[in-house]
Amino acid sequence: MSDPRQEPEDQGPMHMHQLITADGQRVEDELLEEFIADVDDETLLGLYRDMVAVRRIDREATALQRQGQLALWPPMLGQEASQVGSARALEADDFIFPTYRENGVAYCRGALFSQMMGVWRGNTNTGWDPYEINMATPQIIIGAQTLHAAGYAMGLGLEGKESLAIGYLGDGATSQGDVHEAMVFAASFQAPVIFFCQNNHWAISEPVGLQSSVPLAGRAPGYGIPSLQVDGNDVLAVLAATRWAAARARSGGGPSFIEAVTYRMGAHTTADDPTRYRGVTELEEWGAKDPIARLRTLLQGRGKLDAGAEAEIATTADTVGAELRQACISLPDPEPMSIFDNVYADSHAILERQRDHYERYLAGFFAAEQGLGTSSSSGAAGTKGASTMEGSRP
Amino acid sequence: MSQLTLTQSINAGLRRAMEDDPKVVLLGEDIGTLGGVFRVTDGLMKDFGSHRVIDTPLAESAIIGTAVGLAYRGFRPVCEIQFDGFIYPGFDQIVSQVAKLHVRTQGKVRMPLTIRVPFGGGIGSPEHHSESPEAYFVHTAGLRVVSPSNPQDAYTMVRQAIASDDPVLYFEPKRRYHAKGDVDLEADLGAAPALGSARVAAAGTDVTLVAYGAMLKTALDAASAAAEEGISIDVVDLRSLSPVDYVPLMESVRRTGRLVIAHEASQTLGLGAEIAATITERCFNYLETAPVRVTGFDVPYPPSKLEKHHLPDLDRILDGVDCALGRTNSRTGMED
């Protein structure tokens, strides 16, 4: 019996669509060409600029975590093309349901750095107002958001709207029941949804071969969902593939599945140590397929990226880094009593009682500091507090 | 006033909510063409169309999870979980998503889901069809949990649950589905008792007896039987399990000094445990005896031929009342 932890050798007849090779050559793809007919060199330069900025976000945030300014960070190094290419294929009124790693998508969507950093600094569980940028907040439960995307798209269908929902997921998520249920529902109701799977080859320490013995893109057709596999380090191909799926969704064609084959060059999160489970050979192999380097080669070959343009883009990236750092370290600590906010939309008597109690308890410390202690709290502040609030004897 | 069964009352409430708000959509297994296995949604697909009464594939996590997506889009989804014991595949979506999205998004995204769950035993069903899982959801911050005991409440509370901007678990007392009662279909929601309020169902002076859902009728029957022995029981219909409305409960206990809580769900960490603890904290000096729980046992729901032993009945409740009154009862001698 073969070891399921091996990379699947036979990836089947799946064709990986590509428009820019790893060494920066533009190649034709029969299916994808029509979806990028309007993409000129200026647009390509914009995608390059986005990817450089996203890489800089990742580097700066990783540094901020190492310096104790962030509690945690999920690196997206190596996945810039998958995130930028897919995000730039969407319209403003399309709705995105991301995982926790789609900070490159959030950047393209216009999320503020302060919003992006708040989650990873431990200030808040949300990043941004989902309705401001039409993007749900980071989802940590693996695969759960694909059902939300399917449901949102069902809603669009009920309204007869032309926009779409896109659910991001990783290779690990394809083993989750929710992802399969999402595909069942999306297919049954022909919902205008895109399942955008970044196969970055690793679910923390588990290789994709443990999740599936067939290409991930091969799963969707079993649910009646058209699917394609695309070079996830090729920003142009990812843009085209996402536009292919979006066109299907907008024209009543229902759901699509995209497997963007990429690689998580960094750790799962800053708390992870990938040297325990993977070797340098693999990193070198994927380093040679870098999404930014190949577009740089292409643009340089076309004379669109001279030293001046490179310097200008580097300056922009430096600005992004500086702004992100400043936004992060300037975030005020959340107010203690905000822990009780927004648990419910309407009032909830038991929670309000707990809030009142904790407010009194905190006030006891304040009173003690001021030398204004009361019998219920000052003497034992820090050990006992104001715990007795109940009625007196009858 | 109309004479309706409890199922007809929920049906009327759903119908009214759908008429009032085009964003109300129903999702569930067999709820459309069939009208639900208990016929609660009978006729609604015919009248509102298959775009608002949606027969779903058989996947509870997806029923809840797609409802989350619909709520993101501004809909008010009403999910039917066919039986209590089938809710667990949807548990993660309820606990990790439905309950937390409002707080996660700092109030930006509302989750006005209503999740209808027929619950409880006593109907001779096979395994997984008679459970009382309400405590799991009461324990989860961000959810509201209610259970009506009679047709009028069933009608009013389902409308209130749908109108609530918070997610509401609506536990339907399936054993009482066919119970009839007067229902005022024109009742003004604004004038109705709040969704989170408890109600004194029978006034008494000697013992406070708390119940909800199907157990309420058993509690009322026990109160009638006790009255024949000259014991006056104040029966409180909890109606809302999260939050529990302690105001009438404390008022009652401060008069009676004795508390009995009855429910079908298992005892450990059930509603009875929480209510006993809270009343002890807040009314300790009024209590004459320790609060008493009369509940299902801490066993998986038994086969139907044994369920009468598991479900608290009139006699077990009266035995609990004896305990609260300090009279000889089955617990006597077991204090250690």
Tell me what the structure shows.
The complex is a heterodimer of chains A (394) and B (336). Chain A has 394 residues and is of the alpha/beta class. Chain A folds into two domains: 16-329, 3-Layer(aba) Sandwich (Rossmann fold), CATH 3.40.50; 336-394, no CATH class. Chain A is 42% helix and 8% strand. Chain A is built from 13 helices and eight strands. In chain A, the strands form two sheets. A six-stranded parallel beta sheet of chain A has the order 1-7-8-4-3-2, with helices on both faces. A two-stranded antiparallel sheet of chain A has the order 5-6. In chain A, strand 3, helix 7 (177-188) and strand 4 (193-199) form a beta-alpha-beta unit. In chain A, helix 6 (144-159) runs parallel beside helix 7. By secondary structure, chain B is of the alpha/beta class. Chain B has two domains: 2-183, Rossmann fold (3-Layer(aba) Sandwich), CATH 3.40.50; 199-324, Rossmann fold (3-Layer(aba) Sandwich). Helix content of chain B is 35%, strand content 20%. In chain B, strand 2 (24-28), helix 2 (44-48) and strand 3 form a beta-alpha-beta unit. Chain B is globular. Chain B starts with a strand and ends in a 12-residue tail after the last helix. Classes of the chains: A alpha/beta (394), B alpha/beta (336). The interface between A and B is large, with 48 and 56 residues.
